[in-house]
Design goal:
It contains eleven helices and 19 strands. A hairpin with a 5-residue loop joins strand 4 and strand 5. The protein is of the alpha/beta class.
Length: 426
């Protein structure tokens, strides 16, 4: 058993957990973080703030901030209703500044949603996106001549599907399917990205693309243009082809998840965060003095973490923050009561693709204005505990297209509230 003491224990390693660990460390707090594979590993890299409201009408928005004003009025229990617009913007600024410092720059002005092509040939609205994907918004808006490059053996990315779907409104979009230089059989984005760290491999790729280029001003690749060197790879290919190169996200598991995970794995320890990767909280003990002791373990090592406070950022069902049982939905770490429909028969709609979503999709822990979870009596569960991200009730981040923005903003607010309390001596 290895003993660790810290100011804050962050439980979860998805977007909210990573953001909470980052913000807490930047506040000068000592931080330990535990968690396994989460939503960050399967994300597109887009930072959605708000794309759809109301979901029942599937009403999409180019201005996420005016849509948020409406959401706050109509869904007062939504986490965004407990946040000011300036707080959300500041949280995103700090989050993106960290990623930029780690060599993963983001683009977009943050004022309006970008419109970017997806691998399905649809158009995605998002507030911010990796810089390697930003030219796709310009290409799409101008309907400029563009070549979409697909690869033999790479599943989940079809140039034909792109042109058949998106090409209806973009006649100058063409596609070609080629062999990736030096790799045969089934391809995976991570292997392709690692291969492109070699300049000679990039030159060979450009030679394979050039015969299909025609009058293309833009060239779209599936997201696999490097991992830690994606800006260099994209810039080099643009120079080699004489056209603006950009990426389109691939289906999970995507390379953007690998890039984000690498950025945090590299950057958080520099800030002093003790990361307990691929380890889960197996036991919790609350102390009368206000702190906690956590038992954290993985396949081999086990840790005893003494923390003055904690942030719960475990996500919902995918992150294992919530568990569906026969007669109810349970929170898995502290067994905090979960806001949920009254019975299993009311968890879901009769229609699988009901645009209103399923009632269970808004399940989660109740919380106050400081993002402290509430106990069974409606009172604060623990003064030194905060919650952030998808574990919070009142939102449907998938249909509202607000997942990463909500995770980052609620983590920022939770850390702000917790810091004020700890500095006050409580």
């Amino acid at each position: 058993m290895i003993d660790i003491s810290c100011d804050v224990m962050v439980i979860g390693a998805g977007h909210a957990g990573m953001a909470a660990a980052l913000f807490a460390a930047q506040k000068g707090l000592s931080v330990a973080q535990a968690g396994t594979t989460g939503g960050i590993d399967f994300g597109s890299g887009f930072i959605d703030v708000l794309g759809v409201h109301p979901t029942a009408k599937l009403l999409e928005h180019d201005d996420p901030w005016s849509a948020m004003d409406s959401l706050r009025r109509e869904i007062p229990d939504h986490p965004y209703a407990r946040l000011k617009t300036d707080e959300i913007k500041e949280s995103l600024r700090e989050f993106i500044a960290f990623l930029d410092a780690q060599g993963l720059p983001y683009g977009g002005d943050g004022k309006s949603n970008l419109r970017l092509p997806t691998p399905a040939g649809t158009v995605k609205r998002t507030c911010r996106a990796p810089q390697t994907m930003i030219p796709g918004a310009d290409a799409l808006a101008s309907k400029a001549p563009c070549l979409a490059v697909a690869f033999d053996g790479l599943k989940g990315f079809s140039g034909h599907q792109l042109t058949e779907t998106l090409g209806r409104h973009w006649p100058a979009l063409k596609s070609a399917t080629i062999r990736f230089p030096g790799l045969d059989g089934e391809l995976f984005p991570e292997h392709m990205a690692l291969a492109l760290s070699d300049a000679k491999r990039r030159e060979a790729l450009a030679e394979a693309v050039r015969p299909h280029l025609g009058d293309a001003q833009y060239v779209a690749f599936p997201a696999m243009l490097g991992i830690l060197d994606c800006t260099k790879v994209t810039t080099h290919l643009s120079q080699l082809l004489g056209a603006t190169v950009f990426e389109i996200p691939t289906l999970p598991p995507p390379i953007m998840g690998t890039r984000l995970r690498a950025a945090f794995d590299r950057g958080l320890p520099v800030l002093g965060v003790r990361t307990l990767s691929q380890k889960t909280v197996r036991g919790t003990q609350k102390h009368p003095s206000g702190g906690f002791t956590f038992t954290v373990g993985g396949a081999r090592d086990e840790y005893r973490v003494s923390a003055r406070s904690a942030i719960l950022a475990t996500g919902r069902f995918f992150g294992k923050g919530l568990r569906q049982e026969m007669h109810g939905i349970r929170e898995t770490v502290f067994d905090i009561p979960v806001a949920q429909p009254s019975g299993p028969d009311e968890w879901y709609s009769q229609e699988f693709f009901d645009p209103k979503g399923h009632p269970a999709d808004r399940s989660g822990v109740r919380f106050d204005s400081s993002f402290r979870p509430l106990g069974p009596d409606g009172q604060v569960y623990h003064q030194n505990l905060r919650a952030a991200g998808a574990i919070l009730c009142g939102h449907d981040w998938i249909r509202e297209k607000c997942g990463t923005g909500l995770a980052v903003a609620t983590a920022w607010k939770a850390v702000q509230s917790l810091t004020e309390q700890l500095e006050g001596g409580n």
